[in-house]
Amino acid sequence: MRLNDRFVPLFYLLSGLFGFAGVALAAAAAHGGGDAHLLASASAMCLAHAPALLALAFGIDKIKTAWLAGLLIGIGTLLFSADLVSLRFAGSGLFPMAAPTGGFAMMFGWLAVAAGAVFRVRP
């Protein structure tokens, strides 16, 4: 089994979980009061990155940097969203700077996608 093949199931799993969480968080934000904007932001990140992870899983043999991009986007989305959900329901975040760390991870994940244009898999 090649290294890239090991990431495909993880990307499918995260894509499905983020899609589910995104819809659930959007519903909670629509019906919640107070700090519901935190849930809306978490929902947006989950719903934006779920299809991206799915696409990276499909393109893992075509984009040399897909495994790195997927890991960064997956970990970043998880950190960012979980921190906002924790802040909303528990009153405190996961750890100091969890959301910004997740945000930076997502941004670097997208840069890894862009780097795939330069570091291409040759047929």
UniProtKB/TrEMBL annotation:
Q: Which UniProt keywords apply?
A: Membrane, Signal, Transmembrane, Transmembrane helix
Q: Is Transferase given among the entry's keywords?
A: no
The molecule here is called: DUF423 domain-containing protein
Q: Which domain of life is it from?
A: Bacteria
Where is the organism placed in the taxonomic lineage, from the top? Answer: Bacteria, Pseudomonadati, Pseudomonadota, Alphaproteobacteria, Hyphomicrobiales
Q: What residue ranges carry the coiled-coil annotation?
A: none
Signal sequence coordinates: 1-26
The portions of this protein that span the membrane are: 36-58, 65-85, 97-119
